Amino acid sequence: MTTTDIATLIASHMREVSDFPEPGIQFKDLTPLFADAAGLAAVTDALAEAARGADLVAGIDARGFLLGAAVAIRLGTGVLAVRKGGKLPPPVRSETYQLEYGTATLEIPADGVELSGRRVVIIDDVLATGGTLAAAARLLGHCGATATHAAVVLELAALGGRDALAPLTVTSLLAI
Ligand code: AMP
Fold first, then answer.
1. Element (H, E) at 151
2. I need a surface site. Which of 33, 63, 143, 160 has the fewest CB within 10 A?
């Protein structure tokens, strides 16, 4: 499938919801894309292609879990769930960051997964301001891993996330 075909597929399986979860936010819901067999396969393949070279996939809570696991299977790597604050038992490593709406915390286990020297691709559904992916990259860095790239299905280009993440390489399958 060409990059144009994938972009068209994403655009046609996206639900737009105004004023969610806060007034003024135009929420992009990719649930219909993930529920579509051809859509899920196409975005998984394209994200895996972008992620080549990584030896671990980090999926961001919560929609990044779906994609992260699928991409990891395609790449032949494991997957690390980067959780929202308060979900994991201690000890955890955590990072607090600014969201398009409010603040949030990301956490990963402080032990049990060897991260030192790992080359990690971070996967999420939507790139908005970039705060989430930047926090995940910092978190991995604190644990001795390197975020080599980030890959998302949809980029909200006007919010400047790509620039905020530089020099991290970012792939998006559709930028609007
Ligand atoms: P940000 O940190 O601003 O790049 O926000 C990215 C994270 O928040 C991703 O995990 C997205 O799922 C979610 N997100 C932020 N803004 C939106 C939006 N307008 N529509 C859907 N998800 C969003």
1. strand 146-155
2. 160
Cα 32 to ligand 1 centroid, rounded to whole Å: 17
Which residues on neighbouring strands pair with residue 155, listed in sequence order? 127, 175
Cα 27 to middle of ligand 1, angstroms? 8
Q: Quick check: is 100 catalytic?
A: yes
Structure tokens at 57: 């996939």
The confidence score (pLDDT) of residue 22 equals: 86
- Of ligand 1's atoms, which has the minimum distance to the CA of residue 124? 10
Task: Give the architecture (CATH level 2) of 3-175.
Answer: 3-Layer(aba) Sandwich (3.40)
What pLDDT is stored for residue 12 in this prediction?
98
Q: What is the pTM of this model?
A: 0.97
20-38 core/surface letters (b: 16 or more CB in 10 A; e: else): eeeeeeeebbbeebbeeee
Domain boundaries, the chain: 3-175
Tell me what pLDDT residue 103 has: 87
Judge whether 166 and 146 are in contact, CB under 8 Å: no
**Amino acid letter for position 132:** T
